[in-house]
Amino acid sequence: MESQFIFYNPDNYIIMQFLKELMNKIQTFKKNDIPEFDLKKKPILDIKSIMKILPHKPPFLLVDKIIDLTENSIVGVKNVTMNEFFFIGHFPREPIMPGVLQIEALAQVGGILVLNKLSHPELYSTYFLKIDKVKFKQKIVPGDIIIFQVDLLESMKRGIVHMKGKGYVNNKLVVEAEVVAKIVRNYEKF
């Protein structure tokens, strides 16, 4: 949606005040554009079901449950606890979930979205081809519950899928990225 403004006999001060107010309204709208998630709802996929779909196993399985799943979108949950293996060294005095693992968790949720469409998902894996437009907005620490929403940007073509994911903690956007992945039959070179 594109807007056009035409000013006749403009006064620079008035125009600047108008633009500042407009930008504030846009920023407020963007901040309030956070989806609502029902964490009390029964999971569509629990951890046992996820382990049947993804090849990942603990401690590298970074998705605890799926609470929403449609043809082109998925919502997954990760409970971050102090018992996570990565907190031993990152950083012991101020534990923070590493950014690369945030992206991995986001990609695992996306992998479930794509693999769940296959008749035998356990025979396939997803591999990163590209990670783009990554933004880390806030630290993720023990006790946080990350809600990942991943949407397909394009339909799967020749085993390649393009997705956009966002992670939320306490109704705040904490991480976002676009991911391109390839679906490969296990034990096959790509």
TrEMBL record:
Q: Where in the cell is it found?
A: Cytoplasm
What keywords tag this UniProt record? Answer: Cytoplasm, Lipid A biosynthesis, Lipid biosynthesis, Lipid metabolism, Lyase
Q: What is its EC number?
A: 4.2.1.59
TM ranges are none
Show the NCBIfam families listed in the entry. fabZ (TIGR01750), PRK00006.1 (NF000582)
HAMAP family per record: FabZ
Per the similarity annotation, which family is this?
Belongs to the thioester dehydratase family. FabZ subfamily.
Q: What is this protein called?
A: 3-hydroxyacyl-[acyl-carrier-protein] dehydratase FabZ
